[in-house]
């Protein structure tokens, strides 16, 4: 692995991502202090899991969760479902009658994302080509924008001013949530594009590609800034830690690479998994990371310490775990893959 640059258009200092993730002042990120690696095995082993069931066990129909996302306050979590809807849960109330159903998609919902500036608003997209904006309190779709493509990736700008939607034909559409009647602009990548995110300060768009690269583009010009040759085969997912000092990249080679965003040097690789990495998540303090895969046989969730790369705890499962998502201010870990529905480690108490 190497961090070679191609057509760099900013100085090294301008490439730095290590700016804190913008936080809503309505909540504090000090619900937990950082758990030291020496204490982590006992701490995580003591957390209890709460289930959020989509169906009763006697119901043989199967609804699969394609994506999960916490809102900025951590008091709601949304699931994009194969049965054409979004379900919003209150993590304190696991009964399905207390959840909120957002209906309107005509195909499965592949991606959900919350407005980073408003704890009650979110956006969803899927194979029907529609991007739907919601206020979950009213259960109403506020607006709809069509990309005329199969939507596979979704990201909010940290200021909430733009939503980026990637389609299967490697186009990226940018939508202004305040004016959804038309697409703001469309960019065509020259290679297979998988996931996309904005930097924490919103001046850079980061993309994973089928060539194993991470491409950095300036926002809003979309000019090429830097290319990180992260993996030798396809790169599927990526996430910046809350401080923006490291970038995690998951690939088809079953490896998670951790990159320093100041010098773009690979700090370490996590190689505990045996299947392609489809999803990544950092804990709220950036101290721990875990990954998910949807491949058959890809069971269990390994929680690794970011500084050492060592696994501090393994959450046992008997199924693949395609989605993992840490709570924004607590050591709660939500994950999907269980046929019965969502699970949140930590929500059941210490």
From TrEMBL:
Lineage, top-rank taxon, reads: Eukaryota
Q: Please tell me whether the keyword Phosphoprotein is annotated for this protein.
A: no
Matches recorded under Gene3D superfamilies: YVTN repeat-like/Quinoprotein amine dehydrogenase
Q: Which region ranges are annotated with the description Disordered?
A: 1-24
The record's annotation in SUPFAM superfamilies points to: WD40 repeat-like (SSF50978)
Q: Which parts are the WD repeats?
A: 102-144, 228-260
Q: Which UniProt keywords apply?
A: Repeat, WD repeat
> What family name appears in the similarity comment?
Belongs to the THOC3 family.
The protein's name is: THO complex subunit 3
Question: Organism, per UniProt?
Answer: Discina gigas
